[in-house]
Structure formats: structure tokens, C-alpha cells
Amino acid sequence: MKTGMTPGERFTVAEAPAVAPPPAPARRPARGTRTQLPSSPWLFLAPGLLIVAAFSLYPFLSTVAHSFTDARTLTAGQFVGGANYRELIHDAMFWTGLRNSLLYVLGVVPLLVMLPLLLAMLVQRRLPGITFFRAAFYTPVVASVVVVGLIWVWLLDDRGLINALLEGLGFGKVGFLSDPWLLLLSAMAVTVWKGLGYYMIIYLAALANVPRELHEACAVDGAGAVRRFLTVTVPAVRSTMVLVAALSSVAAFKVFSEVYLMAGPTGGPGGEDTTLVMLVQQVGTGLSGRVGYASALSVVVFVLTLGLMLLVLRANRKEDA
Prior knowledge:
Residues 12-36 are annotated as: Disordered. By secondary structure, the protein is mainly α. The protein is 65% helix and 0% strand. The chain is built from 13 helices and no strands. It is flat and about 105 Å long.
């Protein structure tokens, strides 16, 4: 056994035996804290997901499945393939409802995009009593659509207030609720009147983010109110206008309550004012309701609504490009 170093031998650090460091003590969780499980986020999401699955996803899938059957209200029905969709093509009421729904979009959406913006610019100013006008413009939004519809029916009826005023002024009665086209226009007016306050609030939030310096710079350059509106306000709230256009397009295409209350369950004289959603209600309700055919109508309404939204968004992207 070698107990010493002979002359000439040197001891270097590299040759020294390595000493392992002592193991680090295990970290213990602080007192009062708990380790988060991987499934914890899903536990928080579970109630919402269950509600969506029960009241949105399942009814949608069930509607798609029923659209391929001849189911009725009291019978399950049998699989018929695309027979319901082929019947749609030859159904005159379907084309009438599609025409009225598209006309509703074309008549309502432009007004609901521009009028609430002008109204928001009006009530944005700090004037005495402006809070009262803001509340007054928003009141139709919180009112029930049934109450609003009945009020307008009483106003526009042949024996209503407006026709009484027209007769008092020496004019004849106007068939607001008996003429098919006037009835559709009257329903559009109710939709616009009820939606002004809702979209006004959206525009007010967008206008609050427009820098006042831009308006002041344009005013210094000699720009008038109209030019400042077109060059400053419209570009600043453009994304909000697209949002309003998308929301109002979907709401107008799926209109039901206003037309139903003013035209009645039959959709006006000869059903000329029936919309697609009203047609779904007419076909699919009652003891002999054709649930399968109504489901096919509902699927078509969903596809058309989705296509309408994509069309609005695509048009906005083209303008940005």
C-alpha cells in the first residue's frame, strides 16, 4: 500500500478525487397552498360547456338529423334523405319568405349602420339635459318587442291614430297593415326604431376613443362638419360599423316578432309578408306540424345567415386591402 509520495511525483487538482455535493432538500409546498391538477381548468369550464351542449349543440344536431326525416309533431318519422330539401326548391312560400327576408336586410341594415352613428354623435356632446335624451333614445331597447309591436299596430291600424290624423287633415286612409308592401315597410320601421338605441350605445363607446386632436387639426385646415365626419369619424369607427352591419344583418334576416305581430300568424294578406322564420313556425307547429320539413327550413336559414355574415366580413377585408 502506497502511503507517501516519492520524489518527482506531483499532486494536481485534476487528479483530486471528486466529491459529490450534498443532495438538495426536497421543496415542500408552502403551508396553506394546494397543487393545481391538470383537470382544474376543465372543472371550471364544465358548467358552461354543459349548458352550451344541452341548449345549443344538441338542438342543432337534432335539427340537422330531423331534416332528413319525415317526422311530425307526434311521430318520430323515417329517414327520407334529401326529400325535404328538394321540396324546398318547389315551394313557392319558401321563395316568398326568402325574398322578404332579403328585402328586410336591404331595407334595415343601411339605416341601422348610419342612423345610430349620427345619433351617437348628437348625444355625445355635453349639453344640459343630454342624459335625458340618451335614456329616451335607449328606452325602446329595453321595452318588450311584444309591447312595441302592439303600440305600432294601434298607431298604424285603419282606425289608429295616424290614419285618424290623416283623415283630419283631409287625406284618405293609408293601408299600413293591409297592403303587403306597406306592411313590410312598417315592420322595417319598427325594427329600426327599436334598434337605434342599442347600436347608439355601441357607437358611443367607439367615438369615445377617437382623439379630439384629429378633429381640431381638420378644423384648423378649414374642414367642415361633413368633411370631418367622412375623413375622421368614419375611418375611426369603421370596425364598429362592420360589427353593427354583421349584427343587424343577422337580426334582420331572422326577423320574426315584428312581422308576426303586425301581419298576424298568416303573414299578411295571402301570406305575402311571410319571412323564413315565420315559415318555420307555420310549418313546424301544431298537432300535425311537419317537424322534418321545418328542420330543413331551419338548416337553410342557418346556412344563409352564416353566409351573410361571411359576406359582410369578406367585403370589409377587401376594403382594408
